Task: structure prediction
Amino acid sequence: DATLCPCVLLVLCGTILSVAQTFRKHNPKLAKTQKNHYPPPMPKHIELIVRGIIIRDQRLLICVASGGYCYLPGGHIEFGESAEVALKRELVEECGQKIAVGDLLACHEHTFSTKKSHHELNLTFRCRLLNPQAVIVSREPGITFAWLDGKELKAADFRPAAMKHWLHTIW
Result:
């Protein structure tokens, strides 16, 4: 999508400038073990993730991982794929639903460690279900879906935390 390119380039340029500080801040254990290495070892690439905000009856559609935490539906953008196409593909893969993708609402940078280090850029779009009354059922093992209102979202283990805070400012 040609209209998205300048936004993504701007975000990536800003990310490249701050990546070492961000990684060190969010990975203190690794930073302490790598005192003589600056910047600390980085992930081999930045993961570009696309997420969708789908609201029905004042409730937000979220994915709930088997570990209990939740996040917005979506996933990785494949090489050569536009953000819009990726988001549509991910929703069909995750729950079998077709969506219309609207405006880009936000971009959140997020780093975390599991068995390996991750560095993500999450592009978040306003979306709507083409079948607004559809029952959302997961097609993927390890996730379920739920509709949360603002109070439920506030109590949820929503990741990344910065995105949770942002959601409360817009909804």
About this structure: The helical segments are 5-26, 28-33, 83-95, 150-155, 161-170. Confidence is low (pLDDT under 50) at residues 1-7, 9-24. The longest strand covers residues 99-113. Residues 21 and 150 are 32 Å apart (CA to CA).
